[in-house]
Specification:
- With 353 residues, the chain is of the alpha/beta class.
- The chain is 39% helix and 15% strand.
- The chain has eleven helices and 13 strands.
- The protein has helices spanning 14-25, 46-50, 65-76, 97-102, 104-123, 163-182, 204-217, 240-251, 269-283, 315-319, 328-343; strands at residues 5-9, 29-34, 55-59, 86-90, 131-138, 185-191, 194-195, 226-228, 234-235, 238-239, 259-261, 267-268, 295-297.
- The strands form four sheets. The chain has a seven-stranded parallel sheet, with helices on both faces.
- Helix 1 crosses helix 8 (240-251) and helix 7 (204-217) packs parallel to helix 9.
- It is globular, with a radius of gyration of 21 Å.
- It binds guanosine-5'-diphosphate-alpha-D-mannose (GDD).
- Guanosine-5'-diphosphate-alpha-D-mannose binds at residues 95, 97, 138-140, 191-193, 202-205, 207, 228-230, 233, 235, 269, 301, 303, 306, 310.
Length: 353
């Protein structure tokens, strides 16, 4: 008889893939959902895909209710009442904030309408298995709002600055409405920036660490400068493994509620750049050029409207015993070293401890 069941939308993405790994490690039988694309995007699921007994990757698209229903049908064949509710995680989104200014309609289709489709299918689930639903909300929903103490809290006003954040905030409110109206078990977790070596290459952390990885592999010779936008923005960064632990903790509560996942610290993009550079300098035995020669500001990476400052206070998680296990410095180091390896520069690394 199979064990507890979980369904992960957005399983091929950064947090989705770590969630799949965590659930498998915990003995779950996991279904991942992957939107069919012409390029193979399953590299983050290498470990999970090797677990043929307990991991299945299904084709499906959250913007298409019929496809969600077909996924539910597959799941229902493996459902046993004694294993409790099916845990459903929604990480599917068009997650690039800058892109949402150019493609607002498709962003809202995936991020908001996609989630609404899932809520509706859970509400009228024809296969009748009970569900616990997690939605990955975003700290972008706060926009420019910060408490006078310098933190964003659960109850800080949310005033989005991008189409992406509008979609996330509307979905966040729908969760509350479905919880209150139909008694559904739904947790909306407001995730501050979440990073790891599995981060997509267009997000600023990975863009920077990948560039330094390539610089090392190229023996410190600059091919073309790193192009960056706003270096003054501040972000609250947590390692994806810590984020996943936090979400699992909240999903294990008897009654699901909304919460924040944040490190409680903030750094500017300039500080991130400096930390990544220093990590690379300290890690290798070749000489690297001075930092100011490595990058230039490219106005093309500025956004029409920016969220300037994020620093979250994850009150509920602290109360339930969570705190991040990986510091900002350790996170940057892990990403830089991983990118030096990926770029083929491992022979230049001094030591790995
Ligand atoms: N992407 C990018 N590229 N961002 C840059 C660059 C650049 O070249 N230069 C400066 N930045 C600044 C952005 O303007 C922003 O202030 C900050 O770096 C972080 O940008 P991203 O890494 O793209 O992440 P984000 O903060 O916009 O959004 C991420 O975090 C949200 C949660 O707070 C994404 O993961 C969202 O999906 C997530 O909801």
């Amino acid at each position: 008889m199979p064990s507890k069941l979980a369904l992960v939308f957005g399983a091929t993405g950064q947090i989705g893939s770590y969630m799949v790994d965590s659930l498998l490690d915990d003995g779950f039988f996991v279904f991942g959902v992957n939107r069919r694309t012409s390029v193979n995007n399953t590299w983050r699921l290498k470990k999970a895909l090797a677990n043929k007994a307990r991991f299945t990757l299904l084709n499906g698209d959250i913007t298409d209710s019929g496809s969600i229903l077909r996924v539910f049908k597959e799941l229902s064949d493996c459902y046993y009442e004694e294993n409790g509710p099916v845990q459903i995680y929604n990480f599917a989104a068009s997650s690039h904030v800058a892109v949402s200014f150019n493609e607002p309609t498709s962003n809202i289709d995936v991020t908001l309408k996609g989630h609404l489709n899932l809520l509706e299918v859970c509400r009228d689930n024809p296969y009748n298995f009970p569900t616990l639903l997690f939605f990955a909300n975003s700290s972008e929903t706060f926009g420019s709002q910060v408490d006078s103490s310098g933190f964003q809290y659960d109850n800080t006003l949310r005033q989005p600055n991008s189409p992406y954040a509008v979609a996330k905030l509307a979905a966040h409110h729908l969760n509350r409405i479905y919880r209150d109206s139909y008694g559904m078990q739904i947790a909306s977790g407001t995730l501050f920036n979440t990073e790891s070596p599995r981060r997509g290459e267009t997000f600023v952390t990975r863009k920077i660490t990948k560039w330094f990885g390539e610089l090392v592999a190229n023996r410190g010779l600059i091919k073309s400068k790193l192009q960056l936008g706003n270096l003054d923005a501040c972000r609250d960064w947590t390692h994806a493994c810590d984020t996943v632990k936090a979400i699992r903790l909240m999903m294990a509560r008897p009654k699901l509620e909304d919460f924040l996942v944040a490190s409680g610290q903030t750094h500017s993009i300039a500080q991130l750049l400096e930390a990544a550079y220093q990590t690379a300098v300290d890690a290798v035995h070749i000489e690297l050029p001075p930092l100011q020669d490595c990058y230039e500001i490219n106005n093309g990476f500025l956004r029409p409207n920016e969220v300037k400052y994020l620093k979250g206070w994850p009150e509920k998680l602290y109360r339930y015993g969570w705190k991040p296990s990986i510091t900002f410095k350790q996170l940057v180091r892990e990403m830089v070293i991983s990118d030096i390896f990926l770029a083929g520069g491992k022979d230049y690394i001094k030591c790995l401890n």
